[in-house]
Structure formats: C-alpha cells, structure tokens
Design goal:
Blueprint lengths: L11 H12 L2 E2 H12 L7 H14 L2 E8 L2 E9 L1 H12 L3 H4 L2 H9 L6 H19 L10 H27 L1
Helix pairs in contact: 1-2, 1-3, 1-4, 1-6, 7-8
C-alpha cells in the first residue's frame, strides 16, 4: 500500500478528505464544508480537487460509496472508510519529506492530523519543516539594489519564517 497516491504532488486534500470520512460517513458537500469549517479558508476545497480524490480512494479500496436515496431530491453518494483507508490515512500523514516541507499547506495539514501518528513521527515532521525554514533564512541576500517595497517584503518574509520556527519550537516542546 506504500504511497498508493504517489502520482499526486499535493496530498493535503487527500489527507483531509480521508480524515473527514474516517470521522463519519458523509457525502461530498459535507466533506468540503467540514474541512473549511475546521481549517478555515486556508485550504481550497473545490470540486476539481474533491471528487477526483474520492474517485482515487474508491478505486484503491480505501473508501466505499453507497447511494442514499432522498425523496423528492437527487440521490446522494455517501462515502465510508475501509480498514485499508484507515491504514492509508496514517501512512499519508507520516509520509512527509523535504519536498513536502516546502509547501505550507502540506505541512499544516499534517500538523492538523498529528493525533493520528506517533510522537517520533511528529518530531520528525516538525524537524524536517524547521530545517527547510532555516535553510530559507540562511540564504545570502543578493547585492542587487532593492526598492523600498522589495525590502518590506523581505523583512515581512523573514519575520514570518522566524515566527513559524518559534511556533515549531513550541510544538516540539508539546509533542
């Protein structure tokens, strides 16, 4: 089952979709609404991401779809997680590498699901992200003349990187 969704670069949507179905069987709109309710508008969940994700999981046996008939309304497809899906969810949360560390949403999605993985995996993920952020901070500034606004952007970006590193350090003390 190793990396059954490896063809996909961004796994965050798959992680969040599968997690919602693990919480409770639900139909597509509920999945989308719950993700947005839990994580805010930071995560873009649109039909072009949601339904292909559901199809991939169904094809791999991670979820099953049952039709729920509704009187006077269109039928709904309700999705249920399988044992394979539960195993896959944990595997996907743990599967975090230097490529994922460059993507804010990939990192945040995994932190949101830290309760699904071991203490050691949490520490590893936090340290991989922290290493990436420190690498960004250590880049030598170019000698090219910058405008006032470019300097403002650079200062803001540096502050954001330092703030996230401080946040990761606080998480490392808690996990």
């Amino acid at each position: 089952m190793k990396r059954i969704l490896e063809e996909k670069d961004n796994m965050y949507i798959d992680l969040l979709v599968l997690h919602q179905i693990e919480i409770s069987p639900m139909y597509g709109y509920e999945i989308k609404k719950n993700i947005i309710d839990q994580l805010g508008e930071v995560i873009d969940v649109n039909h072009n991401l949601l339904y292909p994700s559901l199809r991939r999981f169904e094809e791999k046996g991670a979820i099953i779809k049952k039709v729920s008939e509704q009187e006077g309304r269109p039928n709904r497809n309700v999705y249920y997680i399988t044992d394979k899906g539960t195993e896959l969810l944990c595997e996907m949360v743990r599967d975090f590498n230097t490529k994922n560390a460059k993507n804010d949403i990939e990192f945040l999605a995994r932190v949101a699901l830290f309760d699904r993985i071991s203490h050691e995996d949490r520490i590893r993920i936090l340290n991989v992200r922290k290493q990436h952020l420190n690498k960004l901070l250590s880049r030598e500034p170019s000698n090219v003349k910058k405008s006032e606004y470019t300097n403002q952007v650079l200062q803001f970006s540096t502050k954001r990187l330092r703030d996230e590193i401080a946040w990761i350090d606080s998480l490392l003390l808690k996990v």
